[in-house]
């Protein structure tokens, strides 16, 4: 079974997605997600100009060999664009293999280890009343674990806090929240501002109020979004200990992995890191020194199912678990792949699940379900996602960028 063609599909049903579709000479198709938020066209070009010509004629069954061919063969290894492109090929080939086998993909990854994936949703509010409403709304939707993001006094807008401008009102007058969507349409990123001292003072008061209102049982998560130095991160981790977080995410940018030691020395708040990592080498030291508790990479950015499975297997040696990135910029193809992997691996922890919009579902028609707080894979052969070309063609790419961040004195900071 040879690869006959591969198409790079760029579409924007409200936000941009890059999808690879591989077709074999036997007429089987497979899908892979290659979306890199705010840099979509670079990965589309990497695929169309440098990878698609290499794929034609390869044996579609040789997934590992193709992975190695693209990883070693580029000479320029790793990085988000390369690894997202490899991920798309890898995922599409797994989709094809599972369709040919007539099995849902997770069956090829070892079969079912659990009934469904515990997932967390994004509750947010600039002030406490709005935040509490959002938490209740998520509970009503079935979420059993909830990420809490909130405004910081003195800052006009803060990462993770949904703007009411994104809420949609249906024909029958019901207003639904739409989760925080940071990429904004336009030729340039918007600028936000940041004040670490105000954040550090404010955040424990928010978690105290949330625990008082919702009790001790509800698993709560929080994302510091790369903004702290190691000693600031240690302080935040320590100040949140009384509120028993499921995890504290991305406390530092973690480019210098050794700095995580400082955070770890000071706090028992569990740490999740890695949504911007791409390979096992980004995690190696963090695992071996047991500096983190959860792996955040999605299938889409970590070299596909093959790449992420390798990371999870190594993590398991150190009792570190999965906590896969699942914002709306990971397409339903990337999410479906994560669900198949998550249902099979022994060291599953939690799955992030920000629901995609209706327009995104019309484009991808995913077969996975969300019931009682659990994501369940499609039982049809393959990934269980179908790309609708007509819908895709109706939504042309529109430039959109993640914001940038400045400190109050105007210096650039991490967003
Ligand atoms: O934890 C998360 O989901 C976030 O950090 C993302 O919303 C992230 O900001 C976006 O994926 C960026 O594209």
UniProtKB/TrEMBL annotation:
Its EC number is 4.2.1.8. Keywords: Lyase. The keyword Lyase applies. Residues 129-270 form the Mandelate racemase/muconate lactonizing enzyme C-terminal domain. GO terms for biological process: amino acid catabolic process; carbohydrate catabolic process. It holds the Pfam family MR_MLE_N. It is an enzyme of class 4 (lyase). It comes from the Bacteria. InterPro entries: D-mannonate_dehydratase-like, DgoD-like, Enolase-like_C_sf, Enolase-like_N, Enolase_C-like, Mandel_Rmase/mucon_lact_enz_CS, Mandelate_racemase_C, Mandelate_racemase_N_dom. This is Mannonate dehydratase.
